[in-house]
Amino acid sequence: MNNVRVRFAPSPTGFFHIGSARTALFNWLYAKHTGGKFILRIEDTDKERNTEESLKVIKDGMRWLGMDWDEGPEVGGDYGPYYQSQRSDIYAQYLEMLRKKGRAYDKDGAVFFKVSGQKQVLHDAVYGDVEGFEEKDFPIFRSNGTPVFHFVNVVDDICMQITNVIRGQDHLTNTNKHLELFKAFEAPMPRFAHIPLILKGDGRGKMSKRDRGALVEEYRERNFLPEAVRNYLCMLGWNPKNDREIMDTSEIVELFDFPGIVKSNARFDERNMAHFNTVHLRALDGDRFCRLASAALSAAGIGVDCSDPYVRRALLLCQPKVTDMENFAPLASFFFDESYAFDAAAAEKVFRKGEPLKRLAELAELFAKLDKFDADSLHDALGALAESKGLKISEYFPILRYALSGLSSGPDLLPMLEVMGAERVKARVARALKEVESPSAREGA
RNA sequence: GUCCCUAUCGUCUAGCCCGGCCUAGGACAUUGGAUUUUCAUUCCAAGAACCGGGGUUCGAAUCCCCGUAGGGACGCCA
Predict the structure, then answer these.
(1) List of A residues 311-340 with CB within 7 A of strand B
(2) Which residues in chain A, range 373-432, keep a C-beta under 7 Å from any nucleic strand B atom?
(3) Is A37 helix (H, G, I), strand (E, B) or coil?
(4) pLDDT by residue (tens digit) across A355-392?
(5) Least confident residue range of A225-234, A248-257, A354-363
(6) I need a surface site. Which of A99, A215, A240, A343 has the fewest CB within 10 A?
(7) What is the pTM for the complete model shown?
(8) ipTM
């Protein structure tokens, strides 16, 4: 288990598919779990596309998900180069080896590999023993002189001394070709582990790049937490067998191993993904949450400074209620904007019953003479007010919330008042009074 | 068409390898309640599954076979 070397070998296509990300993740986890090395190798054999740009998408995505590589682009290593486009000489040497053994021949300008055609058994770490064979010779160099995937993949795995090949189950039958190649080179065989595929949330077939939620960059843009995406991805096709689901990375690293990998394909579930995100968001430490929240507000045109105590207290008040950062700004911006909007739907809810206007006036009166403005004192004062009017304290809550935020829901109300402070609250109640007195305020609903 | 893989609640899964402890567990989602303070929170509860058929066995979700369904591979793509 000590000298484990695993690799992730993406082809830069311009996007980072969630299935690829999970393959990378399983490799990375296995390396971390065993104390081995994780190698990033770029399979750019016949690319005309803007490779630099495309590669950046993958590197950025990997870093965002917290997957660092021990060898590969930018970090180097003893087994380079790590771009297949720079390994032509090596491929030529290996082709020569096959020629000498009589296992390669020319046909139609291409080079073909001569298979043994013998039955072989793959000992897969996930699927167990799988029998199969490759009956047809297959091309290893195209007529344009470039090498083919099966060939470079095996040659590189040999050169880079890869001990464990962890890849998608869609390669299961390809493995016959690879087994043939390894044997022809008389190279030590890596251990294979094929992992189940991620299927579309709805519809047929595996997740494709056009499906919602299929791309890693999409999650970053939508301000998902990387640890949440990582956590959810792990739970798709793997489980620790102890009912644990929400885990931090160190716990996953400790528990991750092949026996926990499921054999059947898993359907992607957007809502479950969102749930993981929510839980991680709420568990986030205050500093990070504030940074994230202020970034979301800035993106919505509301510049706030986390080092401002008011900002920090307001944001932290929102944290236990947050579901995602995508829709965070509209729910928290009222804290920082004295011209906050009064929501029509909220107004309808609030004004449906009782005498909200009267309550609001009573509140204004109460706040005017209040000298303490902490949540507890406010609770007592509101309780006393309600009692004097023969009402329940809850009669005052919806209208007060509406007055202060223009909304019908939000953070805990009393702490919210405390954070906002007496002056701001009074000003807002006054503003709301004016707003609801004028009929125009509620038009356009 | 050929070959390969898989099959437990709507979804992700535990249990299966080493048959009895399964009245089949957890999570998401759904529905319904509760919190003498609002709610987007929290808590509680409910409904919800062993694909079908044959075996083997005293006994099968668990082992075997056949169907069926789903997925994948059959490129001078990776």
Answers:
(1) 320-321, 323, 331
(2) 375, 379, 392-394, 397-398, 401, 407-414
(3) strand
(4) 888 888 899 989 988 888 888 888 888 888 888 888 88
(5) A354-363
(6) A99
(7) 0.93
(8) 0.94
What are the boundaries of each domain within chain A? 284-336, 344-442
Written as one letter, the residue type at A115 is V
Asked whether the beta carbons of A281 and A228 are under 8 A apart, the reply is yes
As a whole number of angstroms, the distance between CA A164 and CA A123 comes to 12
d(CA A69, CA A373): 53
Structure tokens belonging to residue A103: 């296992």
Question: Does strand B come within 7 Å of the CB of A149?
Answer: yes
In three state form, how does the secondary structure of chain A look? CCCCEEEECCCCCCCCEHHHHHHHHHHHHHHHHHCCEEEECECCCCCCCCHHHHHHHHHHHHHHCCCCCCEECCCECCCCCCEHHHCHHHHHHHHHHHHHCCCEEEECCEEEECCCCCCEEEEECCCEEEEECCCCCEEEECCCCCECHHHHHHHHHHHCCCCEEEEEHHHCCCHHHHHHHHHHCCCCCCEEEEECCEECCCCCCECCCCCCCCEHHHHHHCCCCHHHHHHHHHHCCECCCCCCCCCCHHHHHHHCCHHHECCCCEECCHHHHHHHHHHHHHHCCHHHHHHHHHHHHHHCCCCCCCCCHHHHHHHHHHHHHCCCCCCHHHHHHHHHCCCCCCCHHHHHHHHCCCCHHHHHHHHHHHHHHCCCCCHHHHHHHHHHHHHHCCCCHHHCHHHHHHHHHCCCCCCCHHHHHHHHCHHHHHHHHHHHHHHHHCHHHHCCC
Q: Would you tell me which CATH number, out of the four given (3.40.50.1100, 1.10.10.350, 3.40.30.10, 3.20.20.80), belongs to the domain A344-442?
A: 1.10.10.350
- Express each pLDDT in A204-221 by its tens digit: 999 999 999 999 999 999
